[in-house]
Amino acid sequence: MSDSKPKILIVDDDTDLLELLVIRLTAAGYRVEAVQSAEAALNYLDVSRPQLVISDMQMSGMDGMALFEHIHRALPTLPVIILTAHGTIPDAVTAVQRGVFGYLAKPFDSKTLLANINQALRFVPGVVSQETSQASWRKNIITQSAVMEDLLTKAELVAEGDASVLIYGESGVGKELFAHAIHDASKRHHHPFVAINCAAIPEQLLESELFGHVKGAFTGAVRDHKGLFQLAEGGTLFLDEIGDMPLLLQVKLLRVLQERHVRPVGSTQSIPVDVRIISATHRDLKAEIAAGTFREDLYYRLDVVALTIPVLSQRREDIPLLTNYFLNMFSGKYNKNINGFSPEAMEMLVSASWPGNVRQLMNVVERCVALSTAPLISPVLVYDAMHREEEQLVSFEDARKSFEREYLVRVLKITGGNVTQAARLAKRNRTEFYKLLQRYQLDPSVFKQPVT
User: Fold this and answer.
1) CATH, residue 82
2) pTM of the model
3) Is 73 exposed, middle or buried (0-12, 13-18, 19+ CB in 10 A)?
4) What is the domain range of residue 301?
5) 72-121 pLDDT, tens per residue?
6) Does residue 152 fall inside a structural domain?
7) Spatial contact of 413 and 376, defined as CB atoms under 8 Å apart
8) In this structure, what DSSP letter does residue 303 have?
9) Where in the numbering of this chain does the Sigma-54 factor interaction domain appear (predicted)?
């Protein structure tokens, strides 16, 4: 049976009706899974993601509406059709108002059910339209997690339009990978995907990188330079770590998003641009807004649709899948014939905390492959690779935080806790310096105490 056929989960404690529905829907060309309780359905959804759920209303234990509420909270893009022998028009209206896709009273006509199913699946990305197949736009996202599948469904839905997307997630979860997948699923996929890390480029260079500059705009500008907005024309510009963008540039970015024009540094002419913006951050931007370090008006421009990628420890069912994917990749790179990880080694990987997420897992697998001298990777090798990774892996963001805090402590010590002098020494205005102190929870008064 082809995996390209839509998969439907049927939930009913009437085994005769359940069997009849399985026969009818299988004959209609669908892949069908059947369970006899709402609780069993929730267990199934923990490990697999169908395109549609059809549930009876009255069942022993949890009823159909309670099942729908659970599904709607966890997988809001998954359509649900409810069947009931006790249907009334008010019940149907209430159910649809709460988000149920369809509501059919028993006995129902098979053609009516199939029509409802067909209508529901029209709203599920990738089922009716095959313009962007799963093998293409999401090929680099390796997962069997139901949460990730729901996130990918949202990603494909948002890819159909031009709405700005803000991706939240910790370092190493794959934010740029998701952004690229949205671009590949969109109508802009024939045009460039351009990415920039706003935290990795000095403030004085970031404006030129984004908007470009003209010859003579500043010392060293020996020729005109196209910015990333122009290079991404017709496509997608991915602004990684947008929460680290300086306030002055936030103002200029907001103007570009509003006017759809960029003005290169040193130029008096504006250039029209047609670019979709996808941004990402590990920061809590609402907290940054409250602290005065991020503009609220820019936030609402960027956060039209928000997607949050779960950390690796919240999708442990993906760890064996990712591990084997990286194993195959690095076995080819290092020209080694490695069959896999021992059961004990895999258990260590699955139970680890993974503060560095997928990126850290990839580094551990590469180190194991590089150092392996046997066809099976042992738990000792995994332990050593993970231990060294914990010692050596320090993200750019963590390193910067460590430096910033140490620097602030140093200037406060030098000035005896005098914030005005410390801000002057750091070449920052007093308000900005206070915000930095609040970010690192540093109390200037502590540094005013005499040393004993």
Assistant:
1) 3.40.50.2300
2) 0.64
3) exposed
4) 144-308
5) 888 877 889 998 876 555 665 666 667 788 888 877 778 888 888 988 88
6) yes
7) no
8) -
9) 141-370
d(CA 44, CA 146): 9
Residue pLDDT, tens place only, 155-185: 988 998 999 999 999 999 999 999 999 999 9
CA distance 54 to 65: 11
Q: Are residues 361 and 252 in the same domain?
A: no
Residues 351-381: tens digit of each pLDDT: 888 989 999 999 999 999 999 988 899 999 9
The backbone torsions φ and ψ at residue 281, rounded to the nearest 5 degrees and listed phi first, read -160, 155
Cβ–Cβ < 8 Å for 34, 10: yes
Tokens for 271, please give them: 């250039």
CB 164 within 8 A of CB 297: no
Give CA–CA dist 223/73, Å, rounded.
54
Does residue 36 fall inside a structural domain? yes
Closest by CA to 329, choosing from 172, 137, 140, is 140
| Joined tokens for residue 377 | 């990777």
Q: Are 188 and 60 in the same domain? A: no
Region class of 218: left (phi > 0), else alpha (psi between -120 and 50), else beta: beta
The encoded tokens of residue 10 equal 């049927």
